[in-house]
Amino acid sequence: MTVGTPDNLASSTRGGVGQSPRRPDGTRKVTGQFAYSSDLWHDDMLWGVTLRSPHPHARIRSIDIGAALATSGVYAVLTHEDVPGIKYYGLEENDQPVLAVDTVRYQGEAVALVAADHPETARRAMHEIVVNYEVLDPLTDPVRAALDPEAPALHEHGNVVRHQPVRVGDVPSARSRADVVVTGEYEIGMQDQAFLGPESGLAVPGEDGGVDLYVATQWMHTDLREIAPCLGLPEEKVRMTLSGVGGAFGAREDLSMQVHAAMLAMHTGRPIKIVYNREESFYGHVHRHPAKMRYEHGATADGRIVYATARIVLDGGAYASSTTNVVGNAASLGVGPYIVPNVEIDAYGVYTNNPPCGAMRGFGAVQACYAYESQMDKLARELELHPLDVRRINAIHQGAAIATGQVVDTPAPMREMIDRLRDAPLPEAVDSGDVRNLPGGVSNTTHGEGVRRGIGYGVGLKNICFSEGFDDYSTARVRLEVVGGEPAVLVHTAAAEVGQGLVTLQGQIARTELGVERVSIAPADTQVGDAGSSSASRQSYMTGGAVKRACEAVRDRLFQLAAERFDVPADQLSLSGGKLVSEHSGVLVALADLLGDEAIEETREFHHRPTTGMDPVTGQGDTHTQLALCIHRAVVDVDVELGLLKVVDLTAVQDVGTVLNRVSLEGQIHGGTAQGLGLAVMEEIQLADGKLANPSFTDYLIPTILDMPPMRLDILERADPNAPYGLRGAGEPSTLSSTPAIAAAIRDATGLQIDRVPVRPHDIVHPVTG
Amino acid sequence: MSDKHTITVTVNGHVYTDDCEARMTLADFLRRQCGLTGTHLGCEHGVCGACTVFLDDVAVRSCLTFAVQADGARISTVEGLAEGDELNTLQKSFQEHHGLQCGFCTPGMLICATELLRDNPNPTETEVREGISGVLCRCTGYDGIVKSVMAAADSQRDGVSESGSIS
């Protein structure tokens, strides 16, 4: 038997790769024992709160902390003058102040901190801080920020964080060969990740002058690289432990309360707890970049795309966060999973005085996908083709190139996926006599006379893992020893379990590779090497790869040990059911007997294959490690009189390379689809002159169970030979394709353009025409 | 600071007597005074439902209930669902059918589903969806949650009890 190859996954150790064992954190999560970052408590702790700017753009003339500091029960009031180290941080650029220095650039920007012995005391004192602002006009139009040289510069180096062109072939001459041309201007609103567990954590001052941080985050080592310089501490004096994470979806890739709590802890010598409430959470993390996109596609009469142009403007808000990479994704995936011989894309990410935008599930690719898929539907109408046919005619496949010139060198079964979706059964008509079945449910005041049903499709292409030449890696430490007479494995990484089930998968991999059922996952902390971020659908690939590699190293040492002791060739050994097996002599020895008191521990890094950057002029390059496809069909009932709608059915086909854990995988596709549904029909942070109008769950709506229809999934396994076990990252692709599919279904039902998401009732009842 | 009130509540069978301010929510009382942090605060304005608990057998939002309103009441939280060291049928089912990912909504889901199955042991899928529609989940797309509740209803009907000791 060989261990851990895709061929024999299902037959390996119980609870191994390919099976769906229970989550190791499941018992604690269903009994209320699992400690989220907001549950942390220290008997000596103080409560920290953050004063935030009420203005999207202002100069700070002065800050008077006297009255706040004099409040009984207050231990500290801190401003930028108290930042012990460098005053700025950022994921990609150090442009965001820990606390505003002389300017605030968005509403909600952190200005001062208070620590007190009671959260209400801290809040009361916070209101005693007097900040004298000189209010400035906010720059809120991202297109103006991108293209108008007269627009005021919000940062020293101007307002354009990144402009990435893509140039392929000769668009002007291709235009003359096009039989049909379709154009569109598309807009996507600002979506919030809306994880349920607000930002929170505990900072405990250390006796060595350092600090211990217990926080909910996505990438501890990059947090550490940002936090330590701000605190004026070497990285080894900032010790981070992951506490329970109540969802992430990109919003925890940037810092929130980490430096603030640490500053207060170092200043007061007391543990500090900071917990945002929901309103503060809306101000306290980055959002998905809103986008304005102008597209043009030309095709021949037989449906072949001959060229595409796109101008994509992504609003990064006040600070850079991950805007650089969001632009890279939007540009490189700007025409999607289609073969387009002539391309001109200009993708911009800009600074404005809107809230900062950064990572959210599918970033950059989500925005472009809505636009290019809307274009595919326009092409289909012009060409009088079925929407699936125009997509099928132009579909990428293994051996074809995407817009960057990168040849897809692993399976890309888009045509097969389209054909499977075409054959999926459609839902039956609903009983409109039951008002609950109508769009709007019981709030629908009609008898459904205005209800029309539409069907729409969407295909998305997402890069998996970090792109553009980033040396992306993860680290795992695996220890095998005998505990209580049984072999047991301990897996230790810094990878963030944010709900996705990585802890389950780490155990599965260890069981498969070492043939041992008893596996524990150590708490994630910075006492082991960098695991990279729980983002970009990368942790199964990267940390999964690192755990696999560390297990292989442990296994090699076991085989050597056995080879010496039993005088058998090491390459004829395998592990199964806690025993060492020789190809010729059968069971040699139980692991427990072989190991005795000895522990075998190995630490390994896993790097994915290298990628290149994008050429700054042409955008060309092999920039992505892996690409993943998902395709959705949506069926939507629209009440054209009331502007209400109901998504009746969603069917998805996704290629995942290899299924490592089916229930976990399905949960990712369902959850990703639901967030795409939210973006299509309800989720938007509404801004007026840079100010948030709806920072609450009463006014920022996310899908309830009644908004989310039952789903059908068709999961393909076309293994990627470059990836561990042949897997393909699966967290994000469904978030891309569900939005345009739902928008297309609304278009089909109403005949309207639907060139903006989320679709609001007045977009249906009073559409802007022209 | 405002005047303190002394209240007595019975939570999961244990009697707690403590002082609290009039403005203190039941959620904060449970989390801070009783140390029962299984009741989660996702929005603190009554929308997300993660803080749902039983107040005298009725599921309520503990973030919208003042602690003083609960004086003398019997409260059950997620920590009180297990039967000794044994997970109850719903808890097992959420494990088995992947009814959670990050798990932050899970306490609210479990309490609402408990009330639903108590009042309607044979729910249709539509009734399950309606019964737990007051709790938001951001991770799962709800599919695993519906499966979990339906399967728990099946198990309760069949009197099937799988092993699921707390370890």
What do you see in this structure?
The complex is a heterodimer of chains A (770) and B (167). Chain A is α+β, with helices and mostly antiparallel strands and 770 residues long. Chain A has three domains: 6-15 and 472-605, Aldehyde oxidase/xanthine dehydrogenase, molybdopterin binding domain (Aldehyde Oxidoreductase, domain 4, 2-Layer Sandwich); 37-136 and 198-245 and 252-284, Alpha-Beta Complex (Aldehyde Oxidoreductase, domain 3), CATH 3.90.1170.50; 287-467 and 613-765, Aldehyde Oxidoreductase, domain 4. Helices cover 25% and strands 26% of the residues of chain A. Chain A contains 18 helices and 33 strands. Chain A has a seven-stranded mixed β-sheet with strand order 3-7-1-14-11-12-13, sandwiched between helices. A six-stranded mixed β-sheet of chain A has the order 9-18-17-16-10-33, with helices on both faces. A four-stranded mixed β-sheet of chain A has the order 20-28-29-32, with helices on both faces. In chain A, a hairpin with a 2-residue loop joins β21 (473-483) and β22 (486-492). The radius of gyration of chain A is 27 Å and the shape is globular. In chain A, 59% of the residues are buried. Mean pLDDT of chain A is 96; it is low at 1-11. Chain B is α+β, with helices and mostly antiparallel strands. Chain B folds into two domains: 4-80, Roll (Ubiquitin-like (UB roll)); 89-160, [2Fe-2S]-binding domain (DNA polymerase, domain 1, Orthogonal Bundle), CATH 1.10.150.120. Chain B has five helices and five strands. Chain B has helices at residues 26-33, 89-96, 106-119, 125-131, 143-158, and strands at 4-11, 14-21, 52-55, 58-61, 74-76. Chain B has a five-stranded mixed β-sheet with strand order 2-1-5-3-4, with helices on both faces. The longest helix of chain B has 16 residues, at 143-158. The N and C termini of chain B lie far apart (43 Å). Classes of the chains: A alpha+beta (770), B alpha+beta (167). Chains A and B meet through α1 and α16 of A and α2, α3, α4 and α5 of B.
